[in-house]
Prior knowledge:
CATH architecture of the domain at 163-327 in chain C: 2-Layer Sandwich
Helix content of chain A: over 70%
Number of helices of chain A: 5
Strand order of the largest sheet of chain C: 21-22-20-23-24-25
Radius of gyration of chain C: 30 Å
Oligomer: heterotrimer
Structural class of chain A: mainly alpha
Helix content of chain C: 25-40%
CATH class of the domain at 163-327 in chain C: Alpha Beta
Distance between the termini of chain C: 72 Å
Largest interface: B-C, 30 and 21 residues
Radius of gyration of chain A: 17 Å
Largest sheet of chain A: none
Structural class of chain C: alpha+beta
CATH topology of the domain at 163-327 in chain C: Nucleotidyltransferase, domain 5
Number of strands of chain A: 0
Number of strands of chain C: 28
Number of domains of chain A: 1
Distance between the termini of chain A: 64 Å
Shape of chain A: flat
Amino acid sequence: MGRTLPSITQEFMQEQEAFARFRRALRRADQLALDDLFASARQHLSAAAYAAHALPMETFLLSMMLEQHKEVLRLRRELDELRGALHG
Amino acid sequence: MDALTLPLSNQLLVLTAPHAAVKLMLELSARLALSGELRVLDGGNRFNVYPVARIIRRYSPELTRALARIRLARAFTCYQAAAMLADMPAETRPLLVIDLLATFYDESVNLNESRRVLAGCIPHLQRLSRIAPVVVSAKPPAPISPERAVLAEDLRNAAAGDWQLETLPAPKAATLWDMGA
Amino acid sequence: MADLTGWLLDLYEDERGGAALWLIGDDGGRHRLRQEFPVVFYAAGERAQLKGLWSWLRGHPLQPRLSRDQRRDLFQPEPVAVLRIEMQNAARQPQLFREMAQRFPELDYYDADLAIGLRHAARFGTFPLARCYVRADEDGLVSDLRVLDSPWDLDPGKVPLRTLALRPDCDPAHAEPQSLIASHDGHEYRFAFEDERPLLVNLRALLTRLDPDLLLTYNGDTWLLPRLLETAQRHNLPLPLNRDTERGVLHKKEGSYFSYGQIIYRGQQILLYGRCHIDCRNAMMWQDYDLEGALETARITALPIQTAARVSPGTGISSMQITTALRNDILVPWRKQQAERPKTAADLIRFDQGGLVYQPITGLHFDVGMIDFISMYPSIMVRSNISPETPFPDRLGSSDYPPGLVPLTLGPLLEKRVALKQRALSLPTWDPRRRMDKARSEAHKWLLVTCFGYLGYKNARFGRIEAHEAVTTWGREALLRAKEAAEEMGFNILHMYVDGLWVQKKGCRQPQDFQPLLEEVASRTSLPVGLDGVYRWVAFLPSRIDERLPVPNRYFGVFQDGSTKARGIDLRRRDSAPWVADTQREMLRCLAHAETPAALPDQVSAALHILRAQLYALRAGRVPLESLLVGKKLSKELAGYRVPSPGARAALQLLAAGKPTRPGQRIKLLFTRGEPGVHAWNLPEAPDPAALDFAYYEDLMLRAASALLVPFGVSEEDLHVRMHADLGEQLTLPLHAWNRRRMAAQNTPVYALAGGSQGAA
């Protein structure tokens, strides 16, 4: 019924699959970190769909960076709190 | 088939292949979009824009503009396919028809009726191919309905050039496409 | 001359010409009437072809009346020149049209294949169970007919329908039935099948004496009525199933067909004239809304009661559109050939999308409000005026153009739905109207849910892909505006799914606290929006495969009033084994008892207790086999399976026992140890309870239970360990954690170590 293009989730899995060889050659610990990156990008699939980008991979990469930055902000906050507790 | 050279000449070419040569047709769309406008009639709900975009991007940073040069319409029944071809004005933009027979193989339309409708499409394909290149891809019918193979034959008989691909040639960018000197 | 008032029960073509009507009179009589009813249809196309058709029709024995006309085709900007063909005898029109279409296949035909009930509805406003006034002569020929009510009335008067129920004493697929049970008005009769003559004589007497309007059966289409008719023929004792003695019953063959990518099986049908036969087993939506819902569908769609009970909601919507088109002098095309207008490749990416589906924030959340748009897609279709002939809307919630066919069709239905929903909030629980309203609302819901999909359906007469895409585009816009409103008002958004959002804000616990947000969303979108409820707590579940991955639309929770809601888990799936679904439901109810977060740990323990008891019962052989049945649907013909799925293996067993199954049919089976691993339910040999694959069922149960318990900190692995520890297998604990999968693959029950029998059979 109408749907011609693969869903954003299917497209995401294709892009992830395209990096399978890269992943295989990584060390185990690095593989797990890579998996984390891809999993983090999945948080924003709805926005990627709405964006209707012709090259969705760019949106996925941006999503990964977005999550990474959130993590940085969180760590910074935690660090500040710990510092405060140490000096308080 | 060893090579399809660009620019295409004004004639009706029919490609028969296991999956209607979709990958090839998508690549062809991408190549053509790099340098000019084209029309696409999607007869099998197969026009996945993503691989087309990826191919275009390999050759040019002007992705948005290239994509805007592809004008496509989808046919979900054989009657729609026929109406679209009948209403299409003849012009110089190339026409790609992807998986034309998909809707003609539909079990809910009986074979004689499908043949009749296809017979109505063919003169339009020929009309359009007089001043523009027309490439039509088709797949063979499913194993459970071998009697429908006659539709693919009807189509091939109308073509100026017709290729049947058992297996798709491995895409070798340099040899498969000659971008012209 | 007689003036009659009553309710319209049935309407079909009269063989002599015109329409046959059956009226349930206020006088208690069942009146068979005839009304002159010429039918009109049209042909259009190339001039020479039309001329050929004209000459051919002139010479045709059926003598249709011909003329030229100009009429409106929804897909053409200008009226179309048509050949108008009028026939006095409606019953002969299908045959004439068939011949015509074969001889002149190049022409376009309109209004050519429409059910007489729809034509009549368009002209007179009739519908099944409509209250009518009729003037007729002694021969029953109608000279005047007026409809006194409307399908949109919230409280149609109660129709004094006489119902006779017939059913075999057991499921014929499972075992050979011994007797026929007939019931009406609280009386029940049993007739043994083997005493054929007395059965026929008694059934005849019952039918004649009671003269029912409605024949309600179980397996009437597929087994009971064919069997009774065949028996009647053998004994030369005809059964007066029809009220209309001039006609035989209508047999429709069984078949499987494709719809929306799924294969659907339709059993054979036995349809009556002057009386309505509904087979509860073969009724399309019976699971969801029983007789009252089926009657409501008939009222709203104007399809005859027997048809309305059996067809999909898609056919219902199509019928409604056809009637609206006829009423508004719009041609109804026989075959849809309107194609998509070309769009750019970039546009395709933008428009080829569905609703926005967000990943939820997984875990347990408290005091969560669920806001959703009421019938979002239909509301958008009506308010933004989305229809094949209207332009792509430039805004949400209103339109400058006169309403198109689709909004005209859906408008009254949507209004009635909203009206009933609002009434449901204010009616006291003892009010008898509640049950009726609920059943009718279900019918409305299904029709509304289908109308959007129908807009994009390739064979829909008034479908158009651009219209379908316009709906999803504005649906996404509406949800984003709702999100923006919520965020600006300080709400935290936990999840969003197409037409609803789950929001949370400190201090917001009561429905009133969410009211300002509702108003803001309604104002920004011009669409009706409501509060589904405030959850005491709700848990959004992650993926079973990877805990990092949230899964949309998979959650369960408790509202403030104590009622529970769940999506995407076993108790919601039709094919789950009842034992698993019921236990999950019980565990959820148990968790729901926690009124505060502090009370949860106790409820979790109580739920674990329930689980433990059920696992024990399974091993002890105390779980009835029926509740371990898992449903599987065959997706294709058996030959198409390279490696037979469990469903296919069960189908092979049934085939060997002389019971072939068709694609789309549902098979019930038990999972057993060893080969072939399944036992189909309706086999002549009863399954051996000791052969059940206990490990498999345990796995199913633990999987279902962990879906409920993961948000409370109990992982699936934990659960396995706990359950087995309780059954005394301390030694296997570490072994179990590492080897669970290996053991399952070898099909060895973990308790082989426990030895001895697994409980009495």
